[in-house]
Amino acid sequence: MFQWDAESTYIQEPPFLLDMRMTAPASLPPIYGARCLIALGDSVTTDHISPAGSIKADSPAGKFLLEAGVPPSEFNSYGSRRGNDRIMTRGTFANIRIRNILVPETEGGVTKYFPTGEMMSIYEAAMRYKETQTPLIVLAGTEYGTGSSRDWAAKGTALLGIKVVIASSFERIHRGNLVGMGVLPLEFPPGVTWQSLELTGEEEFSFPEIGSDFVPGSEITVKAEREVSPNLFSETEFRVKVRIDTPVELQYFLNGGILQTVVRNLSTFHGESAECCGNCEAH
Fold first, then answer.
1. Structure confidence by residue, pLDDT tens digits, 237-256
2. HSE-up of 188 (CA within 13 Å, CB side)?
3. How far apart are CA 76 and CA 59, in angstroms?
4. Residues 251, 18, 172, 138, CA torsion sign
5. What was the pLDDT predicted at 269?
6. Distance in angstroms (rounded) separating the CA atoms of residues 56 and 72
7. What is the spatial distance between Cα 206 and Cα 228, in angstroms, rounded to a whole number?
8. Tens digit of each residue's pLDDT (9 = 90 or more) over 122-166
9. Beta strands per DSSP E along 159-231
10. Residues 160, 162, 163, 165, Cα dihedral to 10°
11. Category of 25 on φ-ψ map: left (φ > 0), alpha (ψ -120 to 50) or beta
């Protein structure tokens, strides 16, 4: 019911519920050909993932504001613009101190776009992958998502098109937030890292179907295929634990996230109520 102002740089309607089906799927199909957007070490915090501080003029968010006619003196901070997904998505993984191992000896929100080998901002690479409908993943170490329970660390991850995060371990709240945004958290076995598996991040990753009969906490097999020379490929298979820990979380995940779950439940309630407003689809 809110009258959104298309010119506002502070508040915009987020796209979380766009193209949402009103019936929950029985399963989510397998993922093929996923590419690594960012590969990280240990103790990556939610502030690394979604900074709350100042917006730099040369960052994707800063460039967006400049194009919208906002002078740098009025940029304010990511924290103050958390009502605008256009800013927050551009700010995801944009912390100037984050280190992406895909592009060693760099610091800040940059990555390698593997189809061309170019180095570019993480946001730009994600949008290029989106154009080709390429699903994305994150590789990470221990204590991924530690720090404050910043909701945009999970929201921005989902809006970049990241479907899976594979880490050695997760901070408890951030793991739950990822599930709540429809992002699949997977955990390496104890003592195993993406580096010990000799993954480089250049691989294409495949993941099996997750269905309503899935048992929370079970393991799945991930396949990673990398071209080592023209027409010669190397394949690695490894087991990971699915960190969907409860049946309720499984339902959130199959629905696409907690927001979609709430909307579906509201629609069901209105459809069965004697006082139904007659506009259930809108709900």
1. 999 999 999 999 999 999 99
2. 21
3. 14
4. positive
5. 59
6. 8
7. 18
8. 999 999 999 999 999 999 999 999 998 899 999 999 999 999 999
9. 162-167, 184-187, 204-207, 210-211, 219-229
10. -140
11. beta
Distances (CA, A) of 130 to 37, 120, 160, 213: 12, 15, 8, 30
- Residue 58, C-beta contacts closer than 8 angstroms, at least 6 positions apart: none
The answer for residues whose C-beta is within 8 angstroms of residue 215's C-beta and 6 or more apart is: none
Domain boundaries, the chain: 27-50+99-242, 54-91
Inter-residue contact 216 to 247 (CB < 8 Å): yes
- Name the residue type at position 58: D
Q: Which residue has the tokens 């371990």?
A: 169
Angular region, 143: left φ>0, alpha ψ -120 to 50, beta rest:
left
Output the CA–CA distances (angstroms, integers) from residue 180 to 41, 113, 221, 259, 265, in the order listed: 24, 28, 23, 8, 15
Task: In whole angstroms, give the CA distance from residue 192 to residue 185.
Answer: 16
- The two tokens of residue 171 are 């901070």
Query: How is residue 205 written in tokens?
Result: 């990753």
Q: What is the pLDDT of residues 180-225, one digit of tens each?
A: 999 999 999 999 999 999 999 999 999 999 999 999 999 999 999 9
Which helix (H) or strand (E) is 31 found in, with range? Answer: strand 31-39
What is 27-50+99-242's CATH number? Answer: 3.20.19.10
Tokens matching residue 114: 């593997």
What is the identity of the amino acid at 156? Answer: G
SS3 191: coil
Place of tokens 């610091």: 107
